[in-house]
């Protein structure tokens, strides 16, 4: 996909073109019935559009067999972790952040697939109400934090203020600056309350993001995922990059660091996200051979994507 083709596709997505219009242009989608949820965009020449390879350290996607086997074994380890949390009373807060279509939702789904829902839940808050807008910014998130023995997965979190709100102009400069000043202290206080806070940033390249948006436009069962906010973000790639880098600079602390997951290959991203969480805990009957060490080519600190190694701008 060339720069010209990329910009033309962005214009088409932001315009009034329907799914049929994209099909008439020769684009189609394969793999939409795959429960792995890894559809492929097919170009006018009938070949797959391989934008996922952009800036990625692997030439081939993880195979289905390897993915299914690894996922199942890691999900068993997640159940062991959950049992230990229930027994010990410790709390876990997982924060899932990243650009639109970076793979957060699919990863959360795999985390939750076999966990006991009485002790694990997903929090995905919508637009704040008028009352919530008048509260202390962190207030509406606090009531959803885990209690004794729980795991809570935030599908976007208080970090909305640092990236989406900042880029889209949904907050003032003073509100933004106040957030960056207070969030490290807020997270340290959570850690001090017998809670582990783990922050995951899912990294996707620009061309792969556009490919995933195009798939959402074409595939009827994914069209609901393509929001006006998603489309508006297409023109603000570099603004989001700047906001992300500023967020890392101010909030990647020793107490609560960020972990970046390179998710152009969704399967690898999901597996390594699970592995990176499990690797932080020692729980009874832990299978160290299964958990192992997170793949250093896929998971790492924010410096891991310096110069947008995982989110390559055109």
Characterise the protein shown here.
- The protein is 43% helix and 12% strand.
- The chain has helices at 3-14, 19-24, 64-88, 104-112, 130-133, 139-142, 164-168, 173-191, 206-218, 228-233, 237-251, 266-278, 288-291; strands at 28-30, 40-42, 91-98, 120-123, 151-155, 195-203, 258-262, 299-300.
- The strands form 2 sheets. The chain has a 6-stranded mixed beta sheet, sandwiched between helices. Strands 1-2 form a two-stranded antiparallel ribbon.
- The longest helix has 25 residues, at 64-88.
- It is globular, with a radius of gyration of 20 Å.
| Structural domain count | 1
Describe the strand arrangement of the main beta sheet, using strand numbers.
4-5-3-6-7-8
Within the CATH hierarchy, at the fold level, what is the topology? Rossmann fold
Secondary-structure element pattern, one letter each: HHEEHEHEHHEHHEHHHEHHE
Q: Would you state the CATH class?
A: Alpha Beta
Can you identify the CATH superfamily?
Answer: P-loop containing nucleotide triphosphate hydrolases
Number of strands: 8
Helix proportion range = 40-55%
Q: Low-confidence parts lasting 5 or more residues at pLDDT below 50? A: none
Estimated radius of gyration: 20 Å
Shape: globular
Give the biggest sheet.
6 strands, mixed
Secondary structure category: alpha/beta
- Terminal CA distance reads 11 Å
The CATH architecture classification is 3-Layer(aba) Sandwich
Quickly count the helices.
13
Binned strand content: 5-15%
- If you average the pLDDT, what whole number results? 92
């Amino acid at each position: 996909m060339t720069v010209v083709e990329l910009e033309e596709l962005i214009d088409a997505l932001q315009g009034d073109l329907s799914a049929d219009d994209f099909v008439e242009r020769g684009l189609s989608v394969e793999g939409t019935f795959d429960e792995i949820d890894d559809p492929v965009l097919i170009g006018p020449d009938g070949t797959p559009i391989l934008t996922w390879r952009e800036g990625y350290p692997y030439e081939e996607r993880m195979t289905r067999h390897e993915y299914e086997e690894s996922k199942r074994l890691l999900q068993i380890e997640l159940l062991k972790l959950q049992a230990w949390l229930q027994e010990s009373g410790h709390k876990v807060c997982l924060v899932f952040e990243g650009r639109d279509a970076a793979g957060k939702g699919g990863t959360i789904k795999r985390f939750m697939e076999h966990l006991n829902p009485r002790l694990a839940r997903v929090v995905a808050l919508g637009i704040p109400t008028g009352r919530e807008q008048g509260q202390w910014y962190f207030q509406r998130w606090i009531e959803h934090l885990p209690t004794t023995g729980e795991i809570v997965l935030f599908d976007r979190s208080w970090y909305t203020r640092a990236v989406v709100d900042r880029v889209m102009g949904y907050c003032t400069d003073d509100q933004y600056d106040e957030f960056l000043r207070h969030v490290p202290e807020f997270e340290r206080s959570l850690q001090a309350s017998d809670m582990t806070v783990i922050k995951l940033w899912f990294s996707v390249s620009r061309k792969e993001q556009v490919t995933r948006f195009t798939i959402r436009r074409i595939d009827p069962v994914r069209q609901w995922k393509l929001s006006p906010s998603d489309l508006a973000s297409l023109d603000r790639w570099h603004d989001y990059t700047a906001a992300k880098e500023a967020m890392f600079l101010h909030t990647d602390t020793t107490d609560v660091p960020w972990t970046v997951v390179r998710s152009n290959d969704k399967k690898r991203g999901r597996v390594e996200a699970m592995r990176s969480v499990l690797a932080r805990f020692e729980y009874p009957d832990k299978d160290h051979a299964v958990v192992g060490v997170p793949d250093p080519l896929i998971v790492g600190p924010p410096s891991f994507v310096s110069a947008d190694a995982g989110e390559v701008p055109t």
